[in-house]
Design brief:
Blueprint (H helix, E strand, L loop, with lengths): L2 H4 L19 E3 L4 E5 L9 E6 L8 H10 L1 H13 L10 E5 L7 E6 L10 H18 L4 E4 L11 H18 L5 E6 L2 H10 L3
Parallel strand pairs: 2-7, 3-5, 3-6, 6-7
Antiparallel strand pairs: 1-2, 4-5
This protein binds ligand AR6.
């Protein structure tokens, strides 16, 4: 066996494990919040936030991408949390913490966003709870950097322009209470989604 062909290809100037996933489109709140476009799973932060569903057993969208890239350790941890703490499923707006498996992040925080139009007008409050509870859970675990996807704006149908207002006002309020939370990245999958956020935020 030729060791030269089986050695990992690792060029110092293109090390995907340590290079930043993207440079920000914009920053807010004295640089504590940054806006990115690309794949959330590439971000090497203390915790990625997952837009999960109540089952915590995986799905499509960013949830599928996190479980695919992170491997089976994440699903094992989710099953254990279901069995011990949330046998009926994780309620909308709540958040739980697991390993990040093989991902470059250290942990994954799973939260369940509202399905737009299914909560009798409480959608904005529930979406804010996702961001607030994820940030508080991170702070309780002494984590200082987080990356969020645009929770609920895919399969769950939340209009991205409305979500931008909820997310920016919630981050402004919550980060004022969490001085140790140094870095919050908002990661949009497409440039169009990033542009909608930048048009509608209220930072
Ligand atoms: N990186 C960043 N953003 C992504 C990625 C990625 N790899 N993949 C998708 N997005 P969605 P939801 C964006 O549907 O609306 C799942 O099946 C996507 O373009 O992932 O909260 C769960 O299991 C969109 O802007 O989450 C639940 O059943 C945003 O992430 C349900 O979907 C959120 O889209 C949750 O629906």
């Amino acid at each position: 066996r030729n060791s030269a062909t089986s050695a990992p290809l690792r060029l110092w100037f293109f090390d995907t494990a340590t290079m930043p996933a993207s440079s920000p489109l914009a920053t807010f709140l004295d640089g504590r919040v940054s806006i990115h476009v690309g794949d959330l799973t590439r971000h090497a932060v203390d915790a990625l936030v997952n837009a999960a569903n109540a089952s915590l057993l995986g799905g499509g969208g960013v949830d599928g991408a996190i479980h695919r890239a992170g491997g089976p350790a994440i699903l094992d941890a989710c099953r254990a949390i279901r069995a011990s703490r949330w046998p009926e499923g994780l309620p909308t707006g709540e958040a739980v913490l697991t390993t990040a498996g093989d991902l470059p992040a250290r942990y994954v925080i799973h939260t369940v966003g509202p399905v737009y139009g299914q909560h009798g007008g409480r959608e904005a409050e529930l979406l804010a709870n996702c961001y607030r509870n994820s940030l508080q859970l991170a702070a309780d675990n002494a984590l200082t950097s987080l990356a969020f996807p645009a929770i609920s704006t895919g399969v769950y149908g939340y209009p991205p322009s409305e979500a931008a207002q909820v997310v920016s006002t919630t981050l402004t309020a919550v980060l004022a209470t969490l001085p140790g939370m140094a870095e919050v990245r908002l990661v949009f999958f497409s440039p169009a989604d990033g542009a909608i956020f930048l048009r509608h935020h209220r930072f």
